[in-house]
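User: Hi! Is it possible to get a structure for several chains at once, not just one? Here's what I have:
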Amino acid sequence: MVLTANIVTSLCLLYAFSTIGERHEKMFFYPYVLLLIGGVNGSFLTGDIFNLFVCFEVMLLASYVLVALGGEKVQLRESLKYVLINVVGSSVFLIALAYLYGTLKTLNMAHIAVRVAEVGQDPMLTTVSLVLFIVFSLKAGLLLFFWLPGSYVVPPTAVQALFAALLTKVGVYALIRTFTLMFPHHPEVTHTIIGIFAGATIIAGCMGAISSRNVLSIASYNIIIAVGFILIGLAVGTETALMGSVFYLIHDMIAKALLFLIVGMMFYLTGEKLIDNMSGLVRNYPLFGWMYFLVMLALVGIPPLSGFVGKILIGQGTIEANSYVLLFLGFASSLAVLYSLLKVFLSSFFGEAIITNEDKKPIPFFSMVSFVALAICIVGIGLFAEPLLAYVQDATNTLVNPSVYIDAILSEN
Amino acid sequence: MMILIGILVSVATYLILSRNMIRVILGTAILSHAVNLLLITVGGLKTGNVPLLGHADAPFTDALPQALILTAIVISFATTAFLLVLAYRAYKMNGSDDFRELRGMSDE
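Assistant: Yes, the chains can be modeled jointly so their relative placement is included. Here is the combined structure:
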């Protein structure tokens, strides 16, 4: 598990390096990014549920500042809502922690898992686990995502990409940890609810993505779809499905970062947010245009790219567990993703070039480097999926058999 | 104790659901106090010795909830301070502290 966390973290850091070239205006931007990454790494690595809370808070506080940084009207308005929702969410998290401590007298995740297994998961503990579920799904943007499109659209591009790649994924990661390690004993209650939530999330996200005409909100709704898709794997809970989820999580971090960077660059180049007002970008910037095409294919899950393996594994898992509804929803969502992104591609990259050669802005060199690096990652993950799968399998093994993890943690003490 | 927490939570909920920005922020502050009280209550309000090695024979008070609350207080203090500044800036920029006037995405 820590192995995956480390792989993912280094990918995030790589990503952070690649975006650093883009920002040149605001003071104190980098310290907050570092704080954010510190919080994210902390929540990936921690084995204590209260430390998870603290790392969440570090990460969220940094993200509050990053959303508000710049101080435009819209930013302040959206960030206020974002902060309020998350503060209330954190309080609820703390309430759940209080009850957990009250009943089990421990906060170490491995220890909790042992105690839960000892006393059996009574209704009280199931309720606590559901409270935790609500909190994490608030952070992950699972069904309770109403805050997400608003607050992800307003900050500057590099921040958007960081948020898209990391914040929701931390919530997803916490969900996976909670329900495989600590509360796996009542799948008929908890996992059914996760399944329903995942399905509803996908449906709502698809509606949003298809109906929207703003590139930024199309991209945000795509985050929501991906979160739903990853959690299908958790809801099904077979080993293959979990393996798919972990793999897809890694893929999605990179692909979403690239998608958001490209969308932000489109906005920078044309000064327009609506897809109707852009066209012919591929004539002006051929490499850039085909990069978008690549990330679109990866998100849809076309074979040689990184999304394919994750989708296949989750699909296999759902078939093993006979949950055909989730299978159908998952693959229907691929079509919706394809449709929404293709809409952007057709209307803004093809067609008459609106930017003449004279007033064409060059793409900054460093952002082009980061695009290419991320694109190489996507292709690389797709092509070298086999060795990567060994690690993913390792991680999944600890997820499916929590005892491996528990022994590893508790024997040290 | 539980009754007090219940009252605090309901007050906080009422305040958070109101339209005025300052009231909402006060609501979150009260909510965090309620949660802290809850933490110490479920942690057990035992009366015992100080948790030091020298007094190991007598039953001692569990110190962990207090540590948790200390952390939680610091965090909620930071977020509340940040929220107040943010609210002030938002009020300056948007000229309103009423959430009803602040709502909505600018239509696409």
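Chain A touches chain B through 38 residues (CB under 8 Å). Chain A has a mean pLDDT of 75.

User: Great, thank you!
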